[in-house]
């Protein structure tokens, strides 16, 4: 189920740059239809796993923002507009939770970026076609071309977001890990946290080693994303 949610999320990200081009009945934009599917699959995967990814301080802070936005409906002068903003914040929060939980690895993040870039190519092709077929204008140097039903500024923002990924801007910082003696533990993604807990609660008290006070590593091995993804936990150790 988690693997299905992961690839559905990749499809959702792919549709964002051209979301207004296709509408699905009463649901509306295609990205909304795919997003509802992603939310359902992700919720089922969390229920089946029994837990989601722990919330970091950024998500907790954003949750407080959403909560405050909802409370402002008690004193707003425009309930309709405030309610619309609150719903948007809730939708963004849902998307943040899904993305943070499903895209846990560097390869997963790169896949998501590539999906957005491929979707942006769809918009770029539409811009080019509209430019070729555009009627003559008295001020061509000021002419701006839109695409796929977006406003001019909206499509420009989509292209601007995609450009750094196209240029190969690295999403991660490279660091050198100091040499150490490592104790390596094999696990899967679904039980990684449990294995980590048992290393410190059961393994360390039973062996003649102490923690080396150096960075620990989580290694995600090649293979399909999902609960069964093979992982390794590298713990730096020294003799007692």
**Tally of structural domains:** 2
- Overall average pLDDT: 82
The multimeric state of the shown protein is single chain
Radius of gyration using CA atoms only: 23 Å
Q: How helix-rich are the residues, as a percent range?
A: 40-55%
Overall strand count:
6
Shape: globular
Q: Which sequence of SSEs, written as H and E, runs from N to C?
A: HEEHHHHHEHEEE
SS element count, helices: 7
Distance between the termini: 44 Å
What fraction of residues sit in β-strands?
5-15%
| pLDDT < 50 stretches | none
Q: How would a textbook summarize the main sheet? A: 4 strands, antiparallel
Q: Determine the structural class based on helices, strands and strand pairing.
A: alpha+beta
Describe the protein's architecture and organization.
With 240 residues, the protein is α+β, with helices and mostly antiparallel strands. The protein has two domains: 2-53 and 104-166, no CATH class; 181-239, no CATH class. 53% of the residues lie in helices and 12% in strands. It is built from seven helices and six strands, in the order αββαααααβαβββ. The protein has helices at residues 2-15, 30-49, 57-71, 79-102, 106-133, 152-166, 192-203; strands spanning 23-24, 28-29, 181-188, 209-211, 217-220, 230-239. The strands form two sheets. Strands 3, 4, 5 and 6 form a four-stranded antiparallel β-sheet that branches. A two-stranded antiparallel sheet has the order 1-2. The mean pLDDT is 82.
């Amino acid at each position: 189920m988690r693997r299905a949610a992961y690839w559905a999320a990749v499809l959702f990200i792919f549709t964002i740059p051209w979301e207004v081009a296709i509408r699905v009945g009463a649901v509306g934009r295609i990205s909304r239809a795919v997003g509802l599917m992603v939310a359902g699959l992700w919720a089922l995967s969390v229920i089946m796993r029994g837990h989601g990814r722990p919330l970091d301080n950024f998500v907790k802070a954003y949750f407080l923002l959403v909560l405050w936005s909802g409370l402002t409906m008690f004193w707003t002068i425009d309930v309709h507009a405030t309610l619309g903003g609150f719903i948007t914040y809730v939708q963004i929060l849902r998307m943040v939770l899904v993305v943070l939980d499903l895209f846990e690895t560097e390869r997963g993040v790169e896949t998501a970026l590539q999906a957005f870039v491929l979707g942006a190519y769809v918009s770029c092709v539409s811009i080019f076609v509209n430019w070729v077929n555009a009627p003559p204008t008295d001020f061509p140097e000021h002419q701006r071309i839109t695409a796929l039903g977006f406003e001019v500024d909206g499509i420009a923002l989509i292209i601007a977001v995609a450009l750094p990924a196209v240029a190969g801007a690295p999403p991660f910082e490279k660091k050198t890990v100091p040499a150490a003696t490592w104790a390596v533990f094999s696990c899967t993604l679904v039980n990684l946290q449990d294995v980590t807990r048992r290393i410190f609660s059961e393994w360390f008290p039973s062996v003649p080693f102490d923690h080396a006070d150096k960075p620990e590593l989580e290694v995600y091995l090649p293979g399909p994303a999902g609960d069964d993804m093979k992982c390794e936990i590298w713990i730096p150790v020294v003799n007692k």
